[in-house]
Amino acid sequence: MDRGAQVLIVRDDGKLVQQIPWNKPEDLSVDEKWDIALAADGSAEITIQLKARGDFAVYLRRNYELAAQRQTLLEKTLGRKFAGARVVSQEFSDLSNLDENVTMEIRFTAPTFANSSPAPDGRYLVAFFGSQGLFGFDLDGKKLWSKDLGRLDAGAHDLPEYEWGTASSPVIYGDLVIVQCDVQKRSFILAADVKTGETRWKTDRDELPSWGTPAIVEGPKGPELVTNSSNFLRAYNPLTGKELWRLGGSSKITAPTPVFADGLIVVSSGRHPERPIFAVRAGSRGDLTLAKGKTSSAAVAWSMVRRGPYMPTPVIYKGLLYVLHNNGLFDCYELATGKEIYRQRLRHGGSGFSASPVAADGKLYLPSEDGDIFVIKAGREFKQLARNPVGEFLMATPALSGGTLYVRAHHHLLAIGR
To answer: What is the pLDDT of residues 17-68, one digit of tens each?
Structure first.
């Protein structure tokens, strides 16, 4: 049964073109250029023309007493307790007939089924909802295929009863859609035909759970599919799934997505104690793990520890690398050398930052969980230009297109322009 999520396709003028397939948005209203009212928690990044949300996760959040009853039922059925979590199931109404064929997740309260951002390529839209599967649509909103990837148990490696849910988003490369599934047991990365959902290749990974989206880099020796993960950062041939290089020394929990520019691939993570940032030269091959005490090599241009971000993905803009931390520290480095340009602390409202910064028009835009978008002047000197309140909780990274900033807030999708 195809339950647990909704996809909205929105035109640039804010008109709702198609809704797939379950519920209508609560209302339509106008704010800035336009906004669309949404009933979800706002945790997934937006993709231009596409938004997804997790209906059932939201349903349980609005019905805490019922959620507690279902959690008690599931705990009784399975014979174990789940602290700090809420029960989420593919079946809405009845957990009394649980068996091994029912997709189940014990969810920590922060995530939803819409942690992952959908991927469009101008022909197709692909959305990933963790244990609920991978779904392909055309641009008119017609469902083309769905793919069951099994039960994906992603949570803290040292507290496996806390299931945080998946967050890695699909990426489309040519006629392939690729999804990274690092979980407690039997991690893998898989490429499916974007037209049919048929598996083209699948590579097993000896990895702990991770939450970063893979990135595809066009390197000097061909394309590289770069993944952020705990045991090793790895790159693959995106056409075959063959491993090209690996690099050890990362954190035990990894969330930021690899970014790249000017021949360098920057991969980072923020779990103590390592919290590394690596700048890897595109086109490298083999085991790139640095010798003890070394911070660079022929393959690694530079690296540092105790400076990596926990949640936000860094952004590269005009030769500089900007790193935003959950606690509001904001760093700027030279991309080529790793030299620190500045470190500043943003005076946020107390909740910090989870979404990633974006850059355009000589400015950086940093959304905070408190509902403010900080505007920072790009360049070697720190200057805060504005702090614009949205008025809603912000967890999702904005998107930029055609001079418009698209912001996925707690209750609304907003388009902000001149």
So the answer is: 555 543 333 332 323 455 555 544 555 544 433 333 333 232 233 333 444 5
Query: What is the rounded CA–CA span in Å between residue 202 and residue 188?
Result: 7
Q: Please choose, from the candidates 129, 53, 17, the residue with its C-alpha nearest in 3D space to the C-alpha of residue 9.
A: 17
Q: What is the pLDDT of residue 418?
A: 76
DSSP run (H or E) holding 224: strand 222-227
Q: How far apart are CA 299 and CA 286, in angstroms?
A: 10
In the three-class reduction of DSSP (H, G, I as helix; E, B as strand; rest coil), residue 375 is classed as strand
381, two tokens: 């000197």
Cβ-contact 364, 315 below 8 angstroms: yes
Contacts of 65 (CB under 8 A, 6+ apart): none
Looking at every residue in the chain, the average pLDDT score rounds to 82
Please enumerate, as own/partner, the contacts of 176-179 that have beta carbons within 8 Å and a separation of 24 or more. Answer: 176/200, 176/238, 176/239, 177/119, 177/124, 177/126, 177/134, 177/136, 178/214, 178/216, 178/225, 178/238, 179/128, 179/134, 179/149
CA distance 330 to 134: 35
Residue 210 to residue 182: CA distance in whole angstroms: 5
Using one digit for the tens of pLDDT, what is the confidence trace for 311-359? Answer: 999 999 999 999 999 999 999 999 999 999 999 999 998 889 999 999 9
Per DSSP, 312 falls in state S
DSSP 132: G
The whole-model pTM stands at 0.80
